Amino acid sequence: MAQVNLRKLVKNYDETPAVRGIDLDIPDKEFVVLVGPSGCGKTTTLRMIAGLEDITDGEVVIGEDVVNDVPPKDRNIAMVFQNYALYPHMTVHENMSFGLRLKKVPKEEINSRVDNAARILGLVDLLNRKPKQLSGGQRQRVAMGRAIVRDPKVFLFDEPLSNLDAKLRVQMRTEIKKIHQKVRTTTVYVTHDQVEAMTLADRVVVMNAGRIEQVGAPNELYHSPKTQFVAGFIGSPAMNMIPCQLEQAANGLSLTLNGSIRFEISPERTSRYKGHVGSRTLLAGLRPEHLIEQRPHLEPGQQAFEAAPEVVEPMGNETLVFFPVNGADVCARVDPGCGARPGAPLKLVADLRHLHLIDSATGRVL
Amino acid sequence: MKGERKRALYWSYFFLILFAVFFLTPPLYMLITSLKSSAEIGAVTNPWWVYNPTLDNYKALLTSESYLTFFRNSAMVSVIVVIVTMLISIPAAFALARMKFWGSTTLATGVFLTYLIPETLLFIPLFKIFAWFNDTFDISLMNHWWVLVIIYPTLTVPFCTWIMIGYFASIPKELDEAALIDGAGYFQMLIKIFIPVALPGIIAATIFAFTVSWADFLYPMAFTTSADQMVLPAGIVTTLIKGDVYAWGQIMGACLLGAMPPLLIYAFLMDYYIAGLTAGATKG
Amino acid sequence: MALPLIALIAALVVYPALYSIHLSMLNKSLEHFVGFDNFKFLFTRETFWMVVKQSCIFAISAVLFKALIGFCVAHFVHNVPAKGQRKWRGMLLIPWVIPPAMSTLGWFWLFDPSYSAFNWLFVRIGLPAVTWLGDPYWARFSVILVNVWYGAPFFLIMYLAALKSVPEQLYEAAAIDGANWWQKIWYITLPMMRNIISITVLFSLIVTFANFDIVRILTAGGPIDQTHVFATWAFLQGIEGGDIALGASVSLFMFPILAIAAIFILRDINRRGNEA
């Protein structure tokens, strides 16, 4: 159990930068998820923590020590790979005990640790099987068992669920969360799936193009994104980003989306937005769940408008309707019973308490 | 950790250079010798350096009637054997890889097994058989270079068939089915689909067949006795060594020139060459 | 379609092999059937047992060194950055590409009693000159050396390909588990390559055991028959000596050993096919 600190971490492959200076402090016992699109540098960062990649600049600290020049085997870490990386010629028991056998740990202790991990992961009956006799989910659990057995300071996960089918992925996600609650080891987890990030993390680190966009608890990132990238990355279906105009009216600011849709900006935001009146690069960020069907009473913050859906997707518990505004495909989540049909104008409301006004020139949320 | 990898790299280069020296010294020395005059070879000077390089040896070889005959014989034998081998191997591999007829798997294994029966086991009975043929039917089967054309396929066909079975088997069945739907018969499938798709394997097998035919030594030594029928390996060994006087410069030159065709093929088609080697065992 | 193949193999391989058994049971002039007399005769000849011993020593030690060198050098090539690997691989395979008869002549010249370039070097640095081909023990050494020189590149290529098929992540996992370089080789590389190693070793045992070219050219079996192997001795007796029956018997003796090796190879190839 230990904290991990990344200080100004940089990685360049020849001339190409992959990680452009990362500062991150991970306290002991925290489950941190690095999430972002392919090529954002999250796996590279993880591998630098593991010692599998050389560090171009900056420091990695595990516990109290700077580990830049320490080989992986001496960093007291454990890693679960995307492709499991199980030793195919060894049994499950031998796979899990490999690291301990190399350190010449006495046999009784090896067996007790392996049995313990096997019990936590439900592998007790599989200890004598070889990897090729196991299913994908079982193999993944063996990979985790191998990590648990070593009782390391830090767990590192490199997209461990990407190779599993959707249903199994959901199952394993819960397993991982349970294990973390039981074995409270500092964990750094890499994934490109923001749902995984949201469900598993104590804190989420959103990365893009080698830099950290934002760090925070899942809810914080969801409700208070600081950048356009984070706003669009977190949440599914993604937040709507509608090009808009900010105008100064007599009684305050107003947001114009197109000829027929216009919203009043609430007074407490006026000072924040004042400087961007007339800007041509503004986007109105509204999540689909904040665009709903009109109900008998308007809540505070809700403003009504009308739109004709082009596409209607019934999801069972809700219906997604898509309609174009200013060239953007806007998604709204409406009640299945509200009678949404393609082409038929629909009365909707927008909850402007959850508006995120974004300046696409700077990529920041205002 | 960075240092450890650097050290591993330096050690690797060190040993690589060492082994490169080991592997390349003989051919290099052969080249050096071939550029020396007889006088220099006999002299006490540093044998690893050519003081008065001369192309006389090569000139002598390239104008020597017998050497050119050897070369010509080798070329003819090898080319014909390659063609024959391909004509036998490709259909056979196709049949064994695709058409599951009775005994096809045993036959495939059997093919591989025959490759394991070395020429050194077969050369004596073959010698006898051919001699008998010679006497009985008055068809001259001994001491002619085209005897080799008949025998060499035993060296080449099993392995080539084996390689091709591997390549053909790796062609997905969906291609067959698409072709069948498009209206192709078996023969057309072979020509229009299998051969183009398995072309790398075919090239590799061709190279293998050629190289083996070019380099074989035992059969020519056993079956050809007069100089005008010999191929390069046997020819160089038996005729250039006249009694006690070894014309080393010429011998080395002869060897290098004789090694040229395989070396050239290797230089230009190295990947296919290597594919042929590894295909045998890894596609097993 | 497979008929020509079957015909070829039947006529030129199977039949002669069986015929060779028949031949080995005839007398020298091939007129009478003498049963196992030829074999009995061979068993009494001291030379024959020398040939057996020499063939075995030759095959086993040569294959051992070839496999070892091939394995080690494959690692070195694998360690080098990818761009350079091709060049090294290309250079190191050359001994295999040159027809063995011709490269052996080159070695023959390098070993020449009067003009050996090696001896010239040895003398210069103070070591005694070596009678590479004249002394029985050195002659055996030379024959093995040339065979290793010729055959190691084959092992190199095979093992390099096999090395590349071991997933890199296994080594990374092992690094994290705490393995150093030789532990990685022992626990991961070797077990993963077990099949290919046994296939190549058995294969090479067969081929080396039956080798003709190198011994024939370097020593023609001498000195005093100390380097004869089955192939060269059979050639000597059968073709040069005119005693076909005896030659056939000698050749045939290789068969049991080859058959056993072949069985092991087949088993390994099948196992490899199932494991993949």
How would you characterize this protein structure?
The complex is a heterotrimer of chains A (366), B (284) and C (276). With 366 residues, chain A is an alpha+beta fold. Chain A has helices spanning 42-50, 92-102, 107-121, 136-149, 166-182, 194-200, 218-223, 228-233, 267-273, and strands at residues 4-13, 16-26, 31-35, 57-62, 65-66, 77-80, 154-158, 186-191, 203-208, 211-216, 240-243, 245-249, 252-258, 261-264, 282-286, 291-293, 302-307, 311-314, 319-325, 328-334, 346-351, 356-359, 364-365. Chain A has 9 helices and 23 strands. In chain A, the strands form 6 sheets. A 6-stranded mixed β-sheet of chain A has the order 6-7-8-3-9-10, sandwiched between helices. Chain A has a 4-stranded antiparallel β-sheet with strand order 2-1-4-5, with helices on one face. In chain A, α2 packs parallel to α4 (136-149) and α3 crosses α4. The relative contact order of chain A is 0.12. By secondary structure, chain B is an all-alpha fold. Chain B is 79% helix and 1% strand. Chain C is mostly helical and 276 residues long. In chain C, α3 (46-79) runs parallel beside α8 (136-164) and α13 runs antiparallel to α14. Chains in contact: A-B, A-C, B-C. The interface between A and B is small, with 6 and 3 residues.
What is the overall shape of chain A? elongated
Domain tally of chain C? 1
* CATH class wording of the largest domain in chain A: Alpha Beta
CATH architecture identity of the largest domain in chain A: 3-Layer(aba) Sandwich
- Percentage of helical residues of chain A? 25-40%
Mean pLDDT of chain A: 88
Characterize the main sheet of chain C: none
- N/C terminus separation of chain A: 39 Å
The count of domains of chain A is: 2
Counting DSSP H or I runs of 4 or more residues, the number of helices of chain A is 9
